[in-house]
Amino acid sequence: MANVRNQKMLLIVNPVSGKKLAKQYMMRMINRFDQAGYNVTACCTQINKNAYDIVMNRAHQFDIVVCCGGDGTLKETVCGIMQLGLDIPIGYLPMGSTNDFAKSMGIPTDVHDAVEAIINGEPKPVDIGKFGEEFFIYVAAFGNFTAISYSCNQKLKNALGKNAYYMQAVADFFRMKPYHARVEADGEFFEGDYFYGAASNSYGIAGMPVLHNMGVEFDDGLHELILVNMFKNPMELLSLANDMVNKTVSDNPIVTIRHCKHIRFEFDDPTPFTLDGEFGGEHTSVEAATLKHAVKIMVQRPEWISLEENEEHDFVEEPHEA
User: Fold this and answer.
1) Domain containing residue 265: CATH number
2) Which domain holds residue 160?
3) Total number of domains constituting the chain
């Protein structure tokens, strides 16, 4: 028997994200939400930034908005909710190549578990970043490898997942260069030649465990400033890679990390940024600020237990016809 919720849900599906599983699971997702008592209206994105347009045009008619896709789809959804100033929860069904934000928040990457986490979950206030006049969810970054997420071929990402990013990183390795920057973080100043820099609110970036065990909180009103000095020799690069694997990046001498509310980046030349895996423009001076508890993301309650792997449920992948 369906639960009596009497809530209207806008379900936004990106059919080409990840391995194109969203389109395959779409009807089963709708049926499960319907069983749980939601009145579901589903829309598929057609072009880039279409999720934002859907939210702007329709979200005010609903009690909850759920997006199904990658981090880019989530970013567009959140930006729309922020622009409208709506105080409604956002559900996320992660089907991207890396799903950094979902993994950081403990949102299941299994389709069935993610749906159940929304049905049985609760809204959690989450901080959002303001970057110039734009918003970002978990990272605004410059430097080497930051263009990988938006320059990597979508078909390759669908086929290989996060391994596609690593392959692109290897290809970009020999084009590495230092980025000279002046950075102010809550009144503290830094200047140097950097391999990478970011304002972040995530444990991982591009599937790499960058900020585990470093006091990252998603609702504390703070972002993490990350500055990685340009390598002077191959041993510094290997040392950093080893610390990332062992989740001990804070001990690395070429890495600076600060927890802060406001960050200003300044450069001599226009420098490209990536915002949550999307191109964020080129900037010589730009500010990143934390908007505390800006949106509510549905997360599973601590007492909620997912199904065992050998327990059958409605989202088992069906074989494809030849």
Assistant:
1) 2.60.200.40
2) 134-292
3) 2
- 2-41: burial string, b at 16+ Cβ within 10 Å, e else: eeeeebebbbbbbbbbbeebbebbbebbbebbeebebebe
DSSP 8-state symbol, 321: P
Q: Which amino acid is at 91?
A: G
Is 321 among the domain residues? no
Question: What are 74's two structure tokens?
Answer: 């989530």
Residue 28 in contact with residue 80, Cβ under 8 Å? no
- At 313, which amino acid appears? H
| Nearest by Cα to 190 from 216, 229, 221 | 229
Structure tokens at 219: 């609702």
- Write down the residue that tokens 């950094």 correspond to: 100
Sort strands 223-229 and 7-13 into parallel, antiparallel or unpaired.
unpaired
Q: Give the distance from CA 233 to its chain's centroid.
A: 32
CA dihedral 144, 145, 151, 152 (to 10 degrees): 160
Q: How do residues 214-262 score in pLDDT, each as one tens digit?
A: 678 899 999 999 999 998 887 887 887 787 777 788 788 999 999 999 9
DSSP 208: B
